[in-house]
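Q: Hi! First time doing this. I have a protein sequence and I read that you can turn it into a structure. Is that right? Here it is:
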Amino acid sequence: MSTEHHRILVMRHPQTLANIAHTLSGRKDVDLTPEGEKQLFRAVRAIIAWKPNRIWTSPLSRCKAIGEEAAAALGVSCEVHDRLAEIEFGPLQGFTRPQLHASGYSFPWKIDERGLSVAPPGAESFEELLSRAAGLLGELRPLSGRTVCITHGGFTRALLGAAFRIPIDTFWNLRIPNVSSQILTCDGKSFTLAALALAPEEVIGRCLNPDLIGVDTTSASALEGGRA
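A: Yes, that's right. Below is the predicted 3D structure, encoded as structure tokens:
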């Protein structure tokens, strides 16, 4: 049996003005909403409780703000990783849904009869996004201890899609709330999803009781324990 030696917490950034306006912010720096400001501090507390060995962040300010504050409190490094940036929308960046449709495009990208995504020139295709996510998984695979990756909703979907080979026409069908965390474990080769869409307070709760991370409550041993 393989032995887990690396735990990875993947956190989405706080709520932004673009989120509530339903615009495609992509690689553009956008301000947080008042609710997003509150979420930022909740996120920092969760990362501090997680006690990572390292913090990696998207280059965009809505992610860096969390990583830098948590890193300063913990005394660990906060490294900017370009691979953690959001999907590149190219000429559609900043568009609202109505503007998108009026321009003859749709998002998520349509999948053509060959099974390929149809992105406009200058935008990142789903194939390119998933390849970028696979590259990050390659960087994470040989590490040990705990890593925090602070990123975006789109890239989180891609990371999970690449890790678990979710089909290109369905990997976007995941709801990733602001400042939610996904926990992955790795044995040096393959990844396991230990938790999905945890609120910051749930992360803290699992840090206080580490046995909650990755426990299969449907396993025979768990069922036997439940009967005792």
